[in-house]
Design brief:
The structure is a homodimer of 407-residue chains.
Chain A lengths: L18 H18 L8 H8 L3 H13 L3 E7 L7 E6 L3 E8 L3 E8 L4 E8 L7 H21 L3 E9 L2 E3 L4 E5 L4 E5 L2 H4 L7 E5 H12 L7 E6 L3 E7 L2 E3 L30 H4 L1 H8 L8 H13 L3 H25 L4 E5 H4 L1 H15 L9 E3 L6 H16 L6
Parallel strand pairs in A: 3-6, 6-10, 11-14, 14-15
Antiparallel strand pairs in A: 1-2, 3-4, 4-5, 7-8, 8-9, 11-12, 12-13
Chain A binds a DNA duplex (30 and 30 nucleotides) through α1 and α3.
DNA sequence: ACGATTAGTTTATTGCCTGAACTATATGCG
DNA sequence: CGCATATAGTTCAGGCAATAAACTAATCGT
C-alpha cells in the first residue's frame, strides 16, 4: 500500500461525497495550477484547461468563482502566434498572508503575497524567556497589527496567518506543549487575538516544521521528500514526505534532535538521555570547542567558533566533527525508519557545513550505507526567514487546498 | 497542517474530479460500513444510510452495484420492533483473497474471506536460502494453486492476493531489493505468474509491514497508530499511522531493526553499524545467552532460551534484559521522530515478554520520558499467521477503497 | 478582405445525489 | 378482523457539476 495521494475531493473520510466536493476539488486544482506558474508567467484559461485535463467550459466556470472570491486576477492580454489573444491569470496581488515567529530573543512578523513574496517584515529584539507568554503575545499582536497596517496602506488584505514557535505544539488545540528554550509548558494561545478578523484564522507550527515547509516551497531541486534539521540551541526537525509535512498522529513528529544517539550519554533538557541535541546542539558544540557562552550573544559565539575553525584550532574542529558524526547517526536512523534519503541543513548546521560535511557524510555512509548520495545533503535555501515564510506559506497552501472557504 | 484524510472522492492528486469519483467514493463508503460490521451483525440499507449520512435512495442504488459486482450478499430478513423487516447485507462469503508468505524455512499460502476469516491454509517446510528465488516462487505458485483449488471446491472465488517476504521491497515495481536472510538482492518477481487470472492482481509486502496490517485489523483496542516490531533472525518493523501503513516515499519505511542504538557497536548484516538487530535479534540474544544455535532449529533455540529464563540462568536473563533495553532505545527514537507512542511486540519479543517487558519499559522511560504508558506496549494479537493475514487483508482493504474495480 | 487559428462562452446532455412521495411489510390494539 | 402506526426500501422530479460540441470573439497572414 502506498501513501494516499492528498485528499482532493473529499471533505473528510467517512463522510459521503457529493458533487460539491468535486467542485471544491477542481477549484483547488485550478487555483493550484495558477499558483504554481513561475513568477511573471500568467496562464490563460485555455492553458489551465489543457494542464489540468478539465474542459475549457469547466475552467471558465471555476475561474469565475476564483475571480469573484478575489483570489485570482485577470491581467492583460497576450498573443501567442495566431488567434484570439488570451487573458492572463495570476494570484491576486492584493491578497496576502501573515507569518509570525516567536523565538528566544526576538519576535517577528511579515506579510507575503499569495505567491510567497515578502512584502513587509518587522523584527523586534526581545527577551522572551522571562515574564511568561502573555506579554510576548501582546507584543507580537502589536507587531502584527503594525505590519498589517503597513500592508493595508498598500491596499493589501491579509487573509490569514501562521505562527511558528520553537517547541512542541498541538496545532489543533492551539497549544504549546513545551518550549524549553522559552520556558513555556502547556500554554494555550489565543490565536484569534493575535490577528483579529481574518477569514482564515491563524495556524500554529513548530518552528522547524514551518521552516521545512519553506524549504519545500523554495528548494531549487524541487525535492518532495526530505528531512530538514535546524541547529539552534535545540536541534529541530521537520519531515517532508510526498510534498506534505509529516506531523504524525499527535501533530509533533520530526523531533530529530531527540533521537538517542548515545545511550550512555548525558541527560537532555527534554528529560531523556543521550539525545542528538546533547551532542550537536549549539551549547554542546561551543562547550566542546572551549568557547565560553557568557557575555556573548549566540550569534557572536557562533562567529567566534567559525573564526576558531578558520584558524584550524583542533578543539573547535573536533567539536564540529563530533557534531557531524552524531548528526549522521540520527539521520541514518531517520532514513531507516522514514525511508527518507535526503537532508536539508539549517541553522548552525548550515553555517558549519564546510567543517561538518565530511564527518556527516562519513557517518551516514557508516550507519546507513548506500542511502545518502553526497548531493542529497543540501543547505537551507531560505535561511533565517524560513520559519516565518513557512508559516505564511502554509496558509496559502491550505487556501489552495480549499479555495471555497473564501466564497 | 494535519495528515490528510485518505482521499475519498478523488482518483489521484492533480487530476480533475468528476461525478464518477463521487460514485466511487460513496461505493467505498458503503462497502466499508458493511465490512466494518462485527461478525454476525448484518446491517440493513437503512442502517448504512444513517451511519454514512447518505440518503436511503443513494444507498439502495450503491448497494445494487455492490450486489451486482458480487461483493455483497443479501442475507435473510430481520425484524427490529415494528415496521417492515430489513434485509441484511454482508460481504459475499464466496469472494476471497489469498495471502502468501515466503520465509527462511517455509512457504505458506492461505485464503481468507473478505471478512478476514481464514478458510484454508497450507504451509510447506522448505529451505529457501539455497537455489535462488526461481524454485521458491515455483513452489509457492504450486502451493497457491493447490490452496486456490481447495477454496474453489468450496465455491469460493479468489479475487487477488498479497505476498509477504522478509526483506526490503519496492511494491510498485514488484521487486525485492534485499532480503538478507534469503540471500536475495534486486529480485524481480513475476507476481502475475504466482496467482494467475485474478482480477485484482497480487501485491508485494515486507513481512513486518504485512503483519502490522494484520495487527491493525485484529487489535482488540482498535489502535490506529502504533509501531509493530517483530523479532526474528532480523528485527522487522511496520508503522501504522492513522490506520494506514506508513511506507515512506520509497515504499520501505519502518526498518526499526536498523535504527542505530550503539554507534560504537558491531557491524550489521545490512552493512551498517550498531543496528538494533545486532543487539536484539535472535542470533544476538542466543549468543549472549550462551545458547548454541548449531544443530537446532530456531524454534528449538528459542524454546531452550525460555527454559533457561525459567530456570533463572543469569546469562539468559541479562541477554534478554539487554535486548529489551536497546529495543527501548530504538522505540524511544521512533516515538520522537514519528510521534507514535504505542507499540505492538511480535516474534520472539512477544515470546520473551515476561522477561523483556520491565527493561523495555524502563528504557522507554529513560530515553523518552512520559511518552509510553505501560499499557501502550502490547503483544501481537495474531501471532505467527500475521504476515499472511495482513497480506491477504490488504487486498480487501484496497478493494474496499476502490470497489469499482470489480464492475 | 477573408480564411485560418486560437480563446473563451453558450447550450444540450449525462451522471449522481437529494428530498419527497410512494409502496411494502411488519406490529399492536380495539 | 381491521386499521393505525412504524420502519424498510423504491420511484421520481429537481438540482448541480462536468462534458462535448457548437458558437462567438479576436487576432494574424496573405
Amino acid at each position: 500500500m502506498v501513501m494516499p495521494a492528498s485528499a482532493v475531493a473529499a471533505p473528510e473520510s467517512g463522510v459521503p461525497g457529493s458533487m460539491g466536493d468535486v467542485r471544491r476539488s477542481n477549484l483547488s486544482l485550478v487555483l493550484g495550477r495558477i499558483a504554481e506558474a513561475p513568477a511573471g508567467v500568467h496562464l490563460s484559461r485555455a492553458q489551465v484547461a489543457s494542464a489540468t485535463g478539465l474542459t475549457k467550459a469547466s475552467v471558465s466556470s471555476l475561474v469565475l468563482d476564483l475571480l469573484e472570491a478575489g483570489l485570482v486576477r485577470e491581467v492583460g492580454l497576450s498573443q501567442q502566434g495566431r488567434g484570439r489573444p488570451s487573458v492572463g491569470l495570476e494570484l491576486h496581488p492584493a491578497r496576502s498572508v501573515m507569518g509570525m515567529e516567536i523565538n528566544v530573543d526576538y519576535i517577528s512578523a511579515g506579510v507575503t503575497d499569495l505567491a510567497g513574496n515578502l512584502l513587509v517584515r518587522e523584527t523586534q529584539e526581545r527577551d522572551n524567556r522571562s515574564g511568561g507568554h502573555v506579554p510576548v503575545l501582546a507584543a507580537l499582536a502589536g507587531l502584527a497589527a503594525k505590519v498589517r497596517a503597513a500592508a493595508g496602506d498598500g491596499g493589501v488584505q491579509v487573509l490569514g496567518g501562521g505562527l511558528a514557535v520553537p517547541g512542541l505544539v498541538d496545532p489543533a488545540a492551539a497549544r504549546v506543549l513545551t518550549a524549553p528554550n522559552l520556558g513555556w509548558t502547556n500554554v494555550d494561545l489565543d490565536l484569534g487575538a493575535l490577528l483579529p478578523d481574518v477569514p482564515l484564522g491563524v495556524e500554529l507550527f513548530n518552528e522547524a516544521n514551518a521552516a521545512a515547509l519553506a524549504e519545500l516551497r523554495h528548494r531549487p531541486d524541487g525535492a518532495s521528500d526530505f528531512v530538514f534539521v535546524s541547529g539552534e540551541v535545540g536541534v529541530g526537525g521537520g519531515l517532508v514526505v510526498g510534498s506534505e509535512l509529516f506531523t504524525g498522529p499527535g501533530g509533533h513528529a520530526g523531533e530529530v534532535g531527540h533521537i538517542v544517539v548515545d545511550p550512555e550519554g548525558v541527560r537532555c533538557s527534554c528529560g531523556g538521555t543521550g539525545c542528538l541535541e546533547t551532542l550537536s546542539g549549539q551549547d554542546a558544540i561551543l562547550a566542546a570547542a572551549g568557547i565560553a557562552a557568557e557575555s556573548r550573544t549566540r550569534t557572536e559565539s557562533i562567529e567566534a567558533l567559525v573564526r576558531a575553525l578558520n584558524d584550524g584550532q583542533p578543539r573547535a574542529l573536533s567539536a564540529v566533527e563530533r557534531a557531524g558524526r552524531y548528526l549522521g547517526v540520527a539521520l541514518a536512523s531517520t532514513a531507516r525508519v522514514m525511508n527518507i534519503g535526503s537532508v536539508v541543513l539549517g541553522g548552525h548546521f548550515a553555517v558549519l557545513d564546510p567543517w561538518l560535511r565530511v564527518p556527516l557524510l562519513n557517518s551516514l555512509e557508516r550507519y546507513a550505507p548506500g542511502r545518502f548520495a553526497p548531493e542529497q545533503v543540501g543547505l537551507s535555501a531560505v535561511g533565517q526567514a524560513g520559519a516565518l515564510l513557512g508559516a505564511a506559506g502554509s496558509v496559502v497552501r491550505s487556501l489552495v487546498d480549499a479555495p471555497h472557504r473564501l466564497q
